Amino acid sequence: MRTRRYDPGRRERILDAAIEVIAEHGVAGTTHRLIAAAADVPLGSLTYHFDGLDQLLAQAFTRLADRLSRAYAAHFDGVRSRDDLVEAVTDMVHGNAGAQVGEWAVSYELYLAALRDPALRTVTEEWMRTSRTVLERFVDPDTARGLDALIEGLLMHRMLSTAPFPREITRAAVARAVATPEGPA
Amino acid sequence: MRTRRYDPGRRERILDAAIEVIAEHGVAGTTHRLIAAAADVPLGSLTYHFDGLDQLLAQAFTRLADRLSRAYAAHFDGVRSRDDLVEAVTDMVHGNAGAQVGEWAVSYELYLAALRDPALRTVTEEWMRTSRTVLERFVDPDTARGLDALIEGLLMHRMLSTAPFPREITRAAVARAVATPEGPA
DNA sequence: GCGTCATGTGTACAGGCGTACATTGCTTAT
DNA sequence: ATAAGCAATGTACGCCTGTACACATGACGC
């Protein structure tokens, strides 16, 4: 029987620490030493558990995507009507969902990293497939695709804008995205 | 009288080279030495013309935003009807606009950098104000805001997706975003 | 009780980074 | 022609990085 010596959740704690560090410093400013300090483990522990920084980050991003996927799905659990959907999406854009603003920012770090590193594409593809699948519980696939893109853009604009972002505008945009082309139901 | 010695457009060439380097390596991988090589100038020339890498990047981003703003506005010049608008936006998302895909990727680097560096916020604010103003030539301000976000999201999803991105879906999503809530005109 | 070995850690090293600065080379005023 | 000065450059320095690796440590089979 294998017995872990001391710290069974260490690997996972390192990955969570990596996400924290990315949220604060960006992928660019993320180093072994910062992650080690955040996870409160010695520097050598990182090279012991992971084969290089790239692989560590890839696994951290995978873990983040899993967490976000679950939060995303859970957020739409109570949705029954078209109006519920509009409200739920609006809540998500305005930060009243499970995920923190910092976590969304990290997901944009992931997007950008994936643009250059094909190994990360599988993570982004999976995450986008998940979010679209959730939306397809309520609307047809083509509409889901447009709505998914709209959510992405609204989130990004809200994160970047310093001026207040009126909730009513978000709601109106979302309502149009899910309306039937011939008019509201 | 001041006479420039040798290379009057050097500053601008350095900034353009910086954008190229960012497009290829990301902000994270952008260094003085790479920029100098791309612009074909000596390393010392960068520290001579710019006070540190951060300021250089900020000016490069500003230059890029100006260029994108002009291309954006020009792209919508011939638009007369609502149908023209839908078509123009669809073209833009699918890469048939003046800007290259690489330039959009760099603009996402800018967004992410701006998320952490308040000095870059003025650049992103200005760029977003410009794009929204262009759209307001055709639709009311609230609709412009939603449409702007949708474009952003569609562009990002198209850049990241490896699967083909059907033009028809884009067109449908755009059409809904600009439709009057009571139904198509 | 004790060797054996996987597990875990501190340290050192080579390389690349941003930046400062002494030096060069060209231009202009005299 | 020459002195003077400024635009431009090459080089060097200190810092921080990722990673390797020699050593410590404690559990398990016997």
Topology, please?
The structure is a homodimer of 185-residue chains.
Chain A: H1 10-25, H2 32-39, H3 43-49, H4 53-75, H5 82-93, H6 101-116, H7 118-135, H8 141-160, H9 167-178
Helix pairs in contact in A: 1-2, 1-4, 1-6, 4-7, 5-9, 6-7, 7-8, 8-9
Chain A binds a DNA duplex (30 and 30 nucleotides) through helix 3.
Describe the protein in words:
The structure is a homodimer of 185-residue chains. Chain A is mainly alpha-helical and 185 residues long. Chain A has helices at 10-25, 32-39, 43-49, 53-75, 82-93, 101-116, 118-135, 141-160, 167-178. The longest helix of chain A has 23 residues, at 53-75. Chain A is elongated. The N and C termini of chain A lie far apart (62 Å). In chain A, 38% of the residues are buried. Chains A and B meet through helix 6, helix 7, helix 8 and helix 9 of A and helix 6, helix 7, helix 8 and helix 9 of B. The structure holds a DNA duplex (30 and 30 nucleotides).
